[in-house]
Design a protein that fits this description.
single chain, alpha+beta, 8 strands, 54% helix, 26% strand
Length: 288
């Protein structure tokens, strides 16, 4: 009974600590936005957020941690030839180990557009962005969003370490349990702790994956030249076109007339009623 009471007290204390630790303990991740919109590219290489190391206090000791940076780029460029640029883009993707997630192509009377969603290793991000910009005729949009999630990553790692340490303590308690009731209490708490561990590990893996690969939304287009006018047509071709156009108009008029016959009947009845009323009025005025 005494051992069960101690276990219950430890579980209550652990639950209280978990409730407190579940509250966000970090500030919102810093975000930096760098944009170059509606401007011509000058040809200078652009360097954004080089990977660096930062020290964080953990258990009263400073431990260097590699920064976790999530980068997202949005680029819209005009190119001279969409086919040539597409081929050059494929070569650049192979050289920089870039993979595409999505690709769409649209064509109109005015231009041909390609839409790409790409995934690029952070170490190759700057060189790849500079390469695709240098091949462009005009840069319509060049925007890079940088989000620092290092503090959030470190906080999750610390919480995961504490959870695993707590798990080890409960495993040791389970081995020393003397009754079925004690074992059930400990196993229930162990199950909850392991669910928290899996959740924290999933968040850590997600941040690590997002920070290891940058997302690039690339759109490039080629403007079409105005099409030459069609050669002149003969008189008979033009006359046939006009005859067909006239017949289509007459046919449309007949169909329109059939479509509005109820309104025509109402209008004719109204006109007949007005005319009859005027006639009766004139007769009465004559007799008077």
């Amino acid at each position: 009974m005494k051992y069960t009471l101690i276990i219950s007290l430890l579980i209550s204390l652990n639950w209280s600590c978990n409730q407190n630790s579940s509250q966000p303990s970090t500030k919102e991740a810093a975000a930096e936005n760098v944009s170059f919109a509606h401007g011509a590219y000058e040809g200078n290489d652009i360097q954004v957020s080089e990977t660096r190391s930062t020290s964080y206090a953990t258990n009263n000791t400073l431990q260097p941690v590699e920064n976790k940076i999530i980068k997202t780029a949005h680029v819209v460029v005009e190119v001279k030839s969409e086919k040539d640029y597409h081929q050059e883009l494929k070569q650049l993707m192979q050289q920089n180990q870039v993979r595409y997630v999505q690709h769409n192509r649209t064509e109109s009377d005015y231009n041909i557009r390609h839409f790409f969603t790409l995934k690029c290793n952070n170490k190759k991000f700057n060189s790849f962005i500079n390469a695709i910009l240098k091949q462009a005729v005009y840069i319509q949009t060049h925007q890079i969003d940088v989000q620092d999630v290092t503090e959030q990553f470190v906080d999750l790692k610390a919480r995961l370490k504490n959870k695993k340490r707590t798990e080890e303590q409960y495993v040791a308690m389970l081995q020393k349990a003397n009754s079925i009731q004690d074992m059930l209490l400990i196993e229930k708490e162990l199950s909850r702790i392991r669910e928290n561990i899996e959740s924290l590990q999933g968040q850590i893996n997600y941040i690590h994956l997002k920070a290891s690969e940058s997302t690039i939304e690339l759109e490039f287009y080629e403007n079409k030249q105005m099409l030459a006018k069609a050669p002149g047509r003969s008189f008979w071709h033009k006359a046939m076109d006009k005859f067909t156009l006239g017949w289509n108009g007459f046919e449309s008029f007949i169909l329109f007339s059939i479509n509005i016959w109820p309104f025509a009947i109402v209008l004719a009845g109204f006109w007949w009623g007005v005319k009859r009323w005027k006639k009766n009025k004139d007769i009465k005025s004559t007799h008077s």
